[in-house]
Design a protein that fits this description.
single chain, about 550 residues, alpha/beta, seven-stranded mixed β-sheet, 16 helices, about 20% strand, disordered C terminus
Length: about 550
């Protein structure tokens, strides 16, 4: 109870103080007005005492009721919390990011540990986006080892690169200069292509990033639900055999078999809702809000072995999931890494701005490079993938700030390419429905390579962002292939993730260092003042 003291200040009274105050107040009030006759005074005194006792008893009853109510609320809260914990789903493997890296990781894990539950959380709804990618021979080898079915399906989305043209940014090369450089240029290009083929194989095809993602998504669902489909098929076969024995003739048996086959197909179509204990593989429109490691004392850790609590925003509603293993595939600016307090910042700012987009304009199989020796600017446009127009990229010294809208990105890019001597390239950019701007970052290998948390690993750009040279996608596929191998050997465990990190460090660092050195060399010694077309037949 609050009351004001003589100074007018609010004071909190304890239960005992309140009891004494009421008792004293009752006695004083009655005694002060008692009549002077002894008999009446004695009777009044008894009345005052009884009233004080009644007031004291009432006070204690009120206090008891309040305490009981508080205890009930506390107990209700505890029960509610426990009930909530019981309702939180725990998955064996949570994958943050549903791009090619995340989807390939799910395929690798599902094939290596088919009985484990996997959930991919992707912030978008799989709407078309992204530019083009090229997959080197090393990437194709990893895909083939991980899942041969993917090789054929991804190649269906490809578009061939039939020729390569390198142009000066300003197009101011004289005929005399061009003539002197043509032989040197062609020999140098032959050597470069031969080296690439020797180590990684030449890149002769490109793919739209979104097309590759959709192929991986369909295959991921097939692999994830394969075990459930096999169980359903076995059950249907047993039922078919039993029904066939009871059938009156072969025709009836055949008809019934067809009906069961249709039922089996329907079961496979609905597998995503009912398989693996009801754990849904693809969870779209789920943006990561928070991730925290669970303590050993947490109930989820004790009961389920969960190591992480993940909070996602699913279509505007918060959703909490517990996970035993987390694989972060959420890009170079990994939010998983940013949210976890013990994870270091592993990015190096290359002080470059990058713009990307896809235009419906076709290049007819040609890839064209533009380079500015004086400023270090470069650009490229090449086939985007099957029936997808062309993909383009522009790189320049870092522009101050960053665009937040498509209009701002276009405006900032227009200033960078204003003096580019190719109106067709500028028109291709104008025709692009979306222009994306980012800053270029690469992995700092001086920072700790391994995750600071048991049960967490990074894959693809989240682990090792590299320059946009076509190696990023290949490295992601190599990551997932190795991940599948260690999970098959060690199970879906902390030991498997540590083995994955050990196996990937040296190969990734070697390729990253090579790509960065080549880029720095080109910035320092770029001297491209020529316009020469080299066809694929010339460099075989």
């Amino acid at each position: 109870m609050n009351w004001k003291d003589e100074a007018g200040k609010d004071t909190q009274l304890s239960q005992s103080q309140l009891s004494a105050f009421i008792s004293d107040l009752s006695s004083r009030t009655l005694l002060r007005n008692l009549p002077t006759t002894p008999r009446i005074r004695r009777r009044s005194t008894m009345i005052a005492i009884k009233l004080s006792l009644y007031a004291y008893a009432v006070l204690h009853l009120i206090a008891f009721a309040v305490a009981l109510s508080s205890g009930t609320q506390s107990a209700t809260t505890t029960v509610s919390t426990a009930s909530t914990n019981q309702n939180i789903k725990c998955v064996d493997c949570a994958i943050i990011g549903g791009g090619p890296a995340g989807l390939a990781a799910s395929i690798a894990v599902a094939k290596a540990a088919p009985s484990r539950t996997i959930a991919i959380y992707e912030r978008d709804s799989f709407q078309p986006k992204g530019a083009s990618i090229a997959i080197s021979a090393a990437g194709w080898n990893s895909i083939k080892q991980m899942d041969p079915v993917l090789v054929k399906e991804i190649k269906k989305t490809s578009s061939p690169v039939t020729s390569v043209e390198i142009k000066a940014w300003h197009g101011d090369e004289t005929k005399n200069e061009k003539g002197k450089r043509q032989i040197i240029f062609k020999i140098g290009l032959r050597v470069a292509i031969s080296v690439l083929r020797f180590f990684n194989g030449a890149v002769n095809y490109t793919h739209l990033w979104h097309d590759v993602r959709m192929v991986l998504a369909e295959r991921a669902k097939e692999v994830y639900h394969a075990e459930d489909a096999e169980d359903a098929e076995d059950a249907e076969d047993a039922e078919d055999a039993e029904d066939a024995e009871d059938a009156e003739d072969a025709e009836d048996a055949e008809d019934e078999s067809g009906t069961n086959a249709n039922a089996n197909n329907n079961a496979n179509d609905n597998a995503s809702d009912n398989s693996h204990g009801g754990t849904k593989l693809l969870n779209l429109n789920c943006s990561l809000e928070n991730i925290r490691p669970l303590e050993v004392s947490d109930l989820a850790t004790q009961q389920e072995g969960a190591r992480f609590e993940i909070t996602v925003n699913e279509n505007g509603q918060p959703k909490i999931v517990h996970a035993k293993i987390v694989i972060a595939c959420d890009g170079s600016m990994s939010k998983v890494r940013a949210l976890l307090p013990n994870e270091p910042d592993v990015l190096i700012d290359e002080h470059k701005s990058v713009w990307r987009g896809v235009t419906p304009t076709s290049t007819n199989g040609e890839a064209t490079f533009y380079a500015d020796k004086n400023t270090g600017r470069s650009a490229i446009i090449f086939p985007a993938g099957k029936s997808s127009g062309a993909s383009w990229t522009v790189i320049s010294q870092a522009e101050a700030g960053k665009s937040t809208t498509d209009a701002e990105a276009r405006s900032r890019l227009a200033k960078v390419i204003g003096d580019l001597n190719d109106d067709a390239f500028k028109q291709a950019i104008d025709d692009s429905p979306i222009v994306i701007e980012n800053k270029l970052h690469v992995r700092d290998f001086d920072k700790p390579w391994k995750s600071s948390y048991d049960g967490l690993a990074y894959v693809g750009d989240a682990a090792h962002p590299v320059r946009p040279t076509g190696e990023g996608t290949a490295l992601a596929f190599e990551d997932t292939n190795v991940l599948g191998g260690v999970v098959a050997e060690y199970g879906l465990t902390v030991e498997a993730l540590r083995a994955y990190e050990d196996k990937r460090y040296e190969p990734v660092k070697r390729i990253s260092d090579q790509v960065r050195k080549q880029a720095q060399l080109s910035y320092a010694k770029l001297d491209v003042k020529k316009s020469k077309v080299v066809h694929s037949s010339d460099i075989k």
